[in-house]
Specification:
By secondary structure, the protein is of the alpha/beta class. It is about 40% helix and about 15% strand. It contains twelve helices and twelve strands. The strands form four sheets. Strands 1-8-7-5 form a four-stranded mixed sheet. A three-stranded parallel sheet has the order 3-2-4, covered by helices on one side. Strands 9-11-12 form a three-stranded antiparallel sheet. Helix 1 (about 10-30) crosses helix 8 (about 235-245). The two termini are about 20 Å apart. Bound molecules: pyridoxal-5'-phosphate. Pyridoxal-5'-phosphate binds near residues 60, 89, 131, 157 and 160.
Length: about 375
């Protein structure tokens, strides 16, 4: 049996006609950048994310950069964040000349350890940038409490978490709706993936929304009059039209991923493999399982075994951001973020996509059990 990490072709087959109709509509209109398709998607995304404003942009990386620009992050400022994330979380900070202050994560959910924030705040701290990693919201209630006390905005990196909920906040606890600005990615492998690059920023603040809209078009308003120096980062109509189709299926896909996660949990419990730990779903969360990430002893050998037996799997993330070569001048050394570094050694993400079958999942678990049984 072959079990890929992700099978976008399988998903496309289920929505092919709807997607192709949307593509044809955009091609016939020959209107490619921003415009009505993008506005329609922004409306739908704002409703879905339960926010007042949703603003499309070129990628999740740009969403983070634009968010920090809108909050006026300057050279010399500090932004508190995690080192256990995709690179863009930190590069958005350094590209503005600011300094990422990397805190450790909580072992249970791989998200920012909120207890460490207060001690890391200095007079130069400009914002807090948590990541809702793998599709599960970070611990937002105590984070917002600290942020409020210090008058600091929170930028949520929700690139992996569209539709995830932090239930203690009820209706207001959707990813991207809790901080000052939420940032999303439509990279094809995300739960809501486009046919190319795309991103989105969400906010309930009218002033920030206007700034974000201005910054994504070179600060230009009206045409050829530049109020500020922004960047070129627009969502295109083809992406918006496709994303609008996919958004109507997103909750079904989330439900299928949750069903698959529950099935893995059960299979792992039955198999009783001591060398692995399934992901922890925190109480009061709606986890959307952009990744199903286990911790595994002898992880790299296990990964090799799985690849050799046609099971797709991937390490997110093998090198934490504080240990990346390009951030060497920040002065972190091995051991500074022990929980992060341990996660980087142990984490392994398994196939969890909606179209995965029970048979495929049984095969994955069998292969993991076989690896530990043989050695
Ligand atoms: C995917 C991702 C990004 C970047 O999004 P792009 O659209 O690829 O630029 C940022 N942060 C996290 C946590 C991501 O997973």
């Amino acid at each position: 049996m072959k079990v890929p990490l992700l099978d976008l072709k399988a998903q496309h087959q289920t929505i092919r006609d709807e997607v192709m109709a949307a593509v044809t509509r955009v091609m016939d209109s020959q209107q490619f950048i921003l415009g009505a398709e993008v506005e329609a998607f922004e409306q739908a995304a704002a409703t879905y994310c339960n926010v007042k404003h949703a603003i499309g942009c070129g990628s999740g990386s740009d969403a983070l950069l634009l968010a920090l620009m809108a909050l006026d992050v300057q050279p010399g400022d500090e932004v508190i964040t995690v080192a256990y994330s995709f690179f863009a979380t930190a590069s958005a900070i350094t590209r503005l000349g600011a300094k990422p202050v990397f805190l450790d994560i909580a072992a249970a959910d791989f998200n920012l350890d909120v207890a460490q924030i207060e001690a890391a705040i200095t007079p130069r701290t400009k914002a807090i940038l948590p990541v809702h990693l793998f599709g599960q919201c970070a611990e937002m209630a105590p984070m917002l409490e600290v942020a409020k006390r210090h008058n600091l905005p929170i930028v949520e990196d929700a690139a992996q978490a569209i539709g995830a909920d932090y239930l203690p906040f009820g209706e207001c606890g959707r990813a991207g709706a809790m901080g000052a600005i939420g940032c999303f990615s439509f990279f094809p492998s995300k739960n809501l993936g486009g046919a190319g690059e795309g991103g989105l920023m969400t906010t309930n603040d009218d002033t920030l929304a206007a700034k974000l809209r201005l910054l994504r078009v070179h600060g230009m308003q009206p045409k050829y009059y530049h109020q500020v120096v922004g960047i070129n980062s627009r969502l295109d109509a083809l992406q918006a039209a496709i994303l609008n189709v996919k958004l109507t299926h997103l909750d079904d896909w989330h439900a299928a991923r949750q069903r698959n996660a529950a099935r893995y949990n059960e299979l792992f419990a039955q198999a009783g493999i001591e060398a692995i730990t399934p992901p922890v779903e925190r109480p009061q969360r709606r986890h959307i399982y952009n990744q199903y990430t286990i911790r595994a002893a002898r992880r790299d050998e296990l990964m090799k075994h799985l690849h050799a037996h046609d099971v797709g799997c991937e390490v997110y993330y093998p090198v934490p951001l504080h240990q990346q070569q390009c951030f060497a001048d920040l002065g972190y050394v091995a051991g500074d973020l022990p929980v992060t570094e341990k996660a980087a050694r142990e984490a392994l993400s398994l196939p969890i996509y909606p179209e995965l079958t029970a048979e495929m999942q049984e095969y994955v678990v069998e292969q993991i059990a076989a690896f530990y049984a043989q050695s």
